[in-house]
Write a structure and sequence with these properties.
The complex is a heterodimer of chains A (267) and B (88). With 267 residues, chain A is α/β, with parallel strands linked by helices. Helix content of chain A is 43%, strand content 15%. Chain A is globular. The chains are: A alpha/beta (267), B mainly alpha (88).
Chain lengths: 267, 88
């Protein structure tokens, strides 16, 4: 088995996790910027975090022979503070040329507020001005439906946005069709409690198709499993899917999307 | 897969989860004090299981979702609760 982990918050995982992922067949890991579990006190905290994502973490992954890529932004959980967001957006461009940066992400919404919308719009504009791809986080639980609709509407309102260069992550059964119909890629996140389980992810793959879909673990400091993608592949085998179908979903698809940025390459 | 194969693969797991749901509702009933909006939302979502179309997961998720369309003025907090309530 071989797979790409297209969404893993590796700064909050151990080296044992890197070893386990490699053992399971991971060929590359991509790490969007996210909330640290606490609000950073200022832009300097983000500067240090972006250094970690573009310098230290790829070196740590490389010790295990694993290519590491990243996406940069201020996450929606900290977007209520629009002054902080403006400061962070101001430092993002100086990191965009670093060799493992794939684009702007994970941007999006959390509680679907006006300030979050404003900062999301600024992120989209930043991405378009710099020719960047976009990775979008959709809100949790009861906020996901509304947030996904707002995000899709905002992206579609910007004529510069090419939907095929945008992935809208954390879709579930009530949002996946809306995302795919609008021409965006859809990410299915495998979590033990929230988001989706492996059987539900495979249901969505079977019902809605897998041409523009990837699977990810979004492993972080919360309840999550860095091996969720290969475990879902095993579940697909139990459901009778061929090795070629599984390979296309967990390896071919993320490569097809991510390779739109020439910086993404496997050794 | 055939229905028989699906049952072979998932029946025991679904049975276990069904009993867990029943036990959860029993636990809530045995407890003292007032419930909040989540219990009513949960019971409403359960009704979606009776639908005749294979869209039950989607229907349950929609039942628990915020149906409004306009951004709110300010975040009441960072977390989500799992069921929508108009006053928060």
């Amino acid at each position: 088995m071989r797979y790409i982990e297209p969404h893993g918050h590796m700064v909050s995982r151990t080296t044992d996790d890197y070893e386990a992922m490699l053992t399971a067949g991971c060929a590359a890991v991509c790490e969007p910027a996210f909330w640290a579990g606490y609000d950073r006190s200022g832009v300097q905290g983000f500067y240090d975090y972006f250094c970690q994502l573009t310098d230290y973490e790829p070196k740590r992954a490389a010790k295990f022979g694993l290519p590491h890529f990243t996406w940069l932004c201020i996450n929606p959980k900290e977007s209520e503070d629009t002054a902080l967001a403006a400061d962070v957006l101001g430092i993002v461009p100086e990191f965009l040329e670093r060799p493992n940066v794939l684009g702007i992400g994970e941007i999006g919404l959390n509680k679907n507020t006006r300030n979050e919308m404003k900062v999301l719009e600024q992120h989209i504009d930043l991405a378009m001005r710099h020719g960047q791809m976009i990775l979008v986080h959709t809100p949790h639980l009861e906020d996901k439906l509304k947030g996904t609709r707002l995000i899709v509407d905002l992206l579609k309102a910007d004529a510069r946005v090419q939907p095929g260069r945008v992935i809208i992550d954390h879709v579930e059964e009530h949002t996946i069709q809306h995302v795919l119909d609008a021409g965006f890629w859809a990410g299915i996140t495998l979590y033990p409690e929230s988001k989706t389980t492996p059987p539900r992810a495979i249901d969505m793959f079977e019902v809605y198709g897998g041409q523009s879909v990837w699977l990810n673990s979004a492993c972080d400091w919360g309840r999550s499993d860095p091996l969720a993608v290969p475990k879902t592949a095993l579940e697909m085998r139990r459901r009778g899917h061929s090795d070629a179908t599984i390979d296309a979903l967990i390896y071919g698809n993320p490569i097809r999307f991510l390779s739109q940025n020439p910086r993404f390459h496997l050794r | 897969m055939t229905r028989q194969q699906i049952l072979d693969l998932y029946f025991m797991d679904a049975r276990s989860k069904l009993i867990d749901l029943a036990a959860f509702l029993d636990r809530v009933d045995r407890a003292e004090g007032e419930a909040d909006f989540r219990l009513a939302a949960f019971r409403a979502a359960l009704q979606e299981l009776h639908g005749g179309e294979p869209q039950r997961a989607k229907a349950v998720l929609l039942s628990l979702s915020d149906p409004t369309t306009e951004p709110i003025a300010a975040a009441p907090g960072k977390g989500a609760i799992g069921a929508w309530h108009q006053t928060h």
